Write the structure tokens for this entry.
Amino acid sequence: MRDGAHDDAMNFDLPEELAMLRETVRRFVDRELIPIERETCEGGKIKPDVRGVLEEKAKALGLWLYDVPEEYGGLGLGLLARTVVWSELGRTIALPSRNASIFGPSVSPILYFLNEEQKERYLLPVIAGEKKACFAQTEPDAGGDPGAMRSTAVRDGDHYVINGTKRFITGADEADFAQVFAATDREKGSRGGISGFLVDMNTPGVKLLRPQETMMDDRPWEIAFEDVRVPVENRIGEEGEGFRFAQNWISAGRIRHGARGIGVMERCLELGAGYAKERVTFGKPLAERQAVQWMLVDTYADLHQLRLMVHHAAWKADRGEDVRYEAYMCKYLGDTKSFEAADRCLQIHGGIGLTTDLPIERMWRDQRSFVITEGPTEILKMALARRVLREYAG
């Protein structure tokens, strides 16, 4: 080997500081979260007294506002660093699967695109914990296909009038304002016909209809907007830019799905391998049964594949590259493979896996739901198919 050849080699290891971050968060999860994970939540939300204790521990850990840019008082961790945190948090069910916010207020990345006046009224109060926001895009007839949304925002002088219904809106009951996406030009659809608005939840015409009971522990809301008048200055960006803002957020969110899947798969291996060594049937531990060994190996191989994919996508994003298609794959493989891992883990445990004594059933339900929400697998694969045909068929 020529001198210095190793300098050009591909490096698949995390940088030292991120490896240390991973170990720090892992210890926190193992010591503070897993021991109490069946007792932390109620109705899909962290119990207030538990939240207070965990937030103080998160501050002591030095990870408060880890995902908020430094210019707004946060740590400003890059996407690769955040995937490390998300992966470790994915190993426990102590936190709500869609809002693990003990490390500071939940801040929608869309809010960083606001103008300065809007940031003063909405972004900064959210970071300070004085206001809460929800994201309102999904509709009864427009989930995976947001371009088909029926909610409209019609310009009327210096206001827009919004009409429509939004469904599966997490946190709507606690939100002070909503980031609402509505059609300003139905003919253009997602190609310049959707705009985003900041809508205060106490605006006349905004109505919380009902919480939706789901197979998970989540209780998202259905919201009606009836002749809701919103000032033009509450529009996010220019008219027609709403879909672009929403998609910028969703790409990072899809990589987060993959990162969570890493944590779920690791926990399933820990639980499955440990139980397989302990449980004896017909005179032998399950660990000596080839059928069980193969289930563990399948999860192990899927985990390796997913970790490489997620870290690569996050690395590219931190370099400023377009990772739309990598994000599609992270979510598609992350959600499906982590659900399969939870399913195998449940099967290995048999009847005890069906009980709430163990976290497996919760992981099974949550991961199954993610295969549908925030981008169904079939739609992601359809978008990826177009990319494949362009790239390989000319």
Q: What stands out?
A: The domain at 116-236 is CATH 2.40.110.10 (Butyryl-CoA Dehydrogenase, subunit A; domain 2). The chain has a mean pLDDT of 92. The longest helix spans residues 242-278. The radius of gyration is 22 Å.
